[in-house]
Amino acid sequence: MDTSQIIVIVSGAGIIAFILWFFFGKQEGKKATMTTNIQEVEITVEGGYEPGTINLKVGVPTRLIFHRVETSSCSEEVVIPEFGIRKKLPAHEKTKVEFTPDKPGRYSFTCGMGMLRGTLIVE
Where are the alpha helices (DSSP H) in 25-66? Predict the structure, then answer.
């Protein structure tokens, strides 16, 4: 092997390691803030959800405020199947979704098409 082949192999291994870390490494979520006995998080909807991972406390009423700043048809709706939630998100508006997570676990929230994804971590 010559030097250029070694550089290509090392670079490729580095890129693979970075991709694995980025997608499968420990995900830190945003913790909900407490306001008058309700945990609350604002989520920006623009080609995805930001933050994409949210930490919640079990048994505490929750308010997720989805701020949709785009008009893409994919982001018109948010679905949280484990809590029976399916709500329209009007473009350029904030929409409140309220529920109480009753058991710990990891729960997905998605757009109506299932392409945009986020995670609720309930502890």
Answer: none
In a domain, 51, yes or no: yes
2 lies in some domain: no
Question: What's the pTM?
Answer: 0.74
Amino acid at 52: G
Residues 25, 53, 111: CA angle, nearest 5 degrees: 120
Residue corresponding to tokens 């989520």: 43
- The Cα 22–Cα 44 span in angstroms is 21
d(CA 66, CA 59) in angstroms, rounded, equals: 21
Could you report the per-residue pLDDT of 64-108, keeping only the tens digit for each? 999 999 999 999 999 999 999 999 999 999 999 999 999 999 999
Considering the domain boundaries, does residue 46 fall inside one? yes
Q: How many domains does the chain have?
A: 1
What one-letter code names the amino acid at 20?
A: L
